[in-house]
């Protein structure tokens, strides 16, 4: 959604990194490029003016002029201002003191209200609530049936007493849903209202009547993030005609420029509360302004990545797998398949990589990743016998041909998978051994067996001065001194201090101090 804006801002900041001090001309040029980038992203003009003015004022202040790295300070200023435009902090749902909590959805037809109702219900169910969907859109063809299907997929109850398709009273349905929720002990009611292809008085009046009939705790305005400037116009009309408490952005996974997300909050003064980032019911979460600003500036979104991993991976299973990874030996193709399936549950690989900092510079390579490659790998592993998965070394030529035929791939694809698995296993063994890094488990700090340092043999250094060289050479009739480190007295060069004598027959090489083997 924000790829174009992110690329433009990244290029603007890269030109500042070489500057040790920013002049007024540098600040003007930077803010001019930021203004162009925002306008190209379809951000509303009043928002652009306010944003650029604030950035310019702060960039000319002491926090940049006295900074050791002015370019990084400007990035921080832009990040702070983006967070401010997007709402400052995450806005949570307000729950009623006495259940049920009533949430009313409003917006234009085609914005994705019905699907979003199911996503919100599923999200609330995972939070431990018992939501109920209400089919109050009785005008759009098959809207009631669609909500029932979505509710079944989200595993939540649906209240639909009227068939819809122009039949029934939406206000009566909304009013009756409250009594039904109390009777069935649902603590949250989500009302899906009718929309129109455009703003008209009839739609506004119906939405306002439903609002007055049920007195919702939250009225959420659902807006399609791909409609650009029209999102601001529609939001203003709904704000005046119905009023709403928060905004929900849909279709953030589209290829539009995303200016609506940066405009609606500033124009209406209402926070963005939720965002829908895909077609699946699980592609939905609370909107975090700081994380979205970080993504726009290509600084990643590690917190969301961690949260997704925590929801997907079981702690006990993860600890068990970590033990196998550190041992290296016990990690099999069966374990590899299990881990790959867990990663796939977190979402598309492209989305996961996109949350890593600096990945905007590798966008072309990331976009070329095809999740179907993982499906092919899974098919290859599933075509193996349990014994082959446990010990891939037994996979010979005939077995590889059989596996390739069973998985619908070439023999070379099977060879590549097996070869890469062996390489990964070797790497894990080296990691388990600490790779010679001091402090790592099993590490020896560059030492060989027994912890002894392996050093190449070096010849004796001879001084260029013949007099010094002569001093270093022992006389022909003088016995060579014992090598240092050869015995207990090695650190003394084989000599004792003056006046100290050893007992007759004492062999210092056989002396073992405490701690020596």
From TrEMBL:
The record's Pfam families line, in alphabetical order, gives: SRP54, SRP54_N, SRP_SPB
Q: Where is the region Disordered? A: 433-517
One biological process term from GO is: SRP-dependent cotranslational protein targeting to membrane
PROSITE patterns attached here? SRP54
**One of the record's GO molecular function terms:** GTP binding
SRP54-type proteins GTP-binding domain segment(s): 271-284
Query: What keywords is this UniProt entry annotated with?
Result: Cytoplasm, GTP-binding, Hydrolase, Nucleotide-binding, Ribonucleoprotein, RNA-binding, Signal recognition particle
The Gene Ontology CC terms held by the record are:
signal recognition particle
Instruction: Name its cellular compartments.
Output: Cytoplasm
Record-given protein name = Signal recognition particle protein
> Whose protein is this, by species?
Nonomuraea longispora
Q: Lineage of the native species?
A: Bacteria, Bacillati, Actinomycetota, Actinomycetes, Streptosporangiales
